Amino acid sequence: MILIEKIKEAAISVIPVMIVVWALHLTVAPMGDALYKFMIGGVLLIIGLGVFLVGAEIGIVPTGSRAGSALTRKRNLTLLLAAGFIIGFFITIAEPDVHVLAQQAKAVSPDIPQFGLVVMIASGVGLFVSVALARIVFQLSLRIMLAVFYALVFICAAFAQPGFLGIAFDAGGATTGPMTVPFIMALGIGVAAVRARSDNDDSFGLIGVASIGPILAVLVLGLFSRDASTAGDNAVIEQSASIWGHFLRYIPEVVEETGMALAPLIFLFILFKLFLFGKMRTRQIIRLVLGLTYTYLGLVCFFVGVKGGFIPAGTMLGSMLAKLDSVWIIVTVAFALGALAVCAEPAVWVLTRQVEEVSGGSIKSRIILVFLCVGVASAVALSLARLYYGFSLWAFLLPGYIVALAMTLICPPLFTAIAFDSGGVASGPLASTFILSFTLGAAHEFGNMSALDAFGAIALIAMTPLIAIQILGIIFKLRMRGAKR
Asked: Considering the entire predicted model, what is its pTM?
């Protein structure tokens, strides 16, 4: 049964993180009741993610692929680009990772409007989904497009309020989560499949381009906003009468928030049915309704687990490890959590399988996964080292992106497209919940910078795969040359 398979897939992803946290609890960071809340939250996360993935597979992904194919067959560029914006906007509004990031930003800085931040991120994604679709239609160079838009990103970052820098780059990673990635990738594959003279490069790169939009959007918000102030002192973990009461009190707000997030997506699918798909079989309609139902129930369960267990426990664990005042301990733990987190991202497995299929098996999914693990683990370790020593995020982002963009000149185009897709894919639910709260908790204890300056962990997680996968591409290119000789 597909539900059992997806829950098993989610369990294999999340349980290793739970084991590491349990081991830390027994050794250097006793967490008390927070551990039990974390474990219950982990179970809810597994169930929620499994149910959500079933909904995505039977309802959302097929609809995205069908929409991409139908829009392309219309042979109307204006319609395709307008639909790309609308789809990108609505699918991001429904993305759980975006709401988690906005809540985290609001928690540390009340001056940042939570809903306004979500709308800006969604607008950026919508705009750049249109740009990415235009690239496929006109066969534009991905390398040139990335260089131009990232140059614009860093120009805006130089003038935006400093407090928005980390949030902007974190938004670029958080927006490509379990809702956005399957739908947008299916949309892009649908367009590339219909377009004449399509090649493998067109099947990838859409996520990489779409990830630029939210970064620019939040930086634009930072250009026209006064610098956000931080809240005084954030509680590491909230107490409640009982463990079960702690989770039950989140249900009403999560039910409402999830319903508001999915409502635009339902409206979008109704528009597809009326104006794009034409007559649909009863079986297709039933699968779509079931998919949306599973998606809703999965997201409710996911958010209750995240809010009640993962975020407070991650904050507490980061704070407790930081109090040990040992950079080696916290960096080692961060490296291990980063490696486990990337293996826990469902979208990573989707991407690696697609790469193996599109490449005809010449690029093995496990090889890409190894390089992604090393890249993301290094990113989380670097993020904690940055917080410990008080380094600016600029010291990592600017040289990192310069190297990544320079590598596009010698890396095979297919690997460049995969690399920039994987940058967004690697930063999913665990990065936006547990890893981010872990780094914020540690930053609070280090005291070297404000809470807003502590944002940036997701940004580094999204950046390091750009370099790691392109290194793999260059190695692949050299081995192919050697084989030909």
From this structure: 0.81
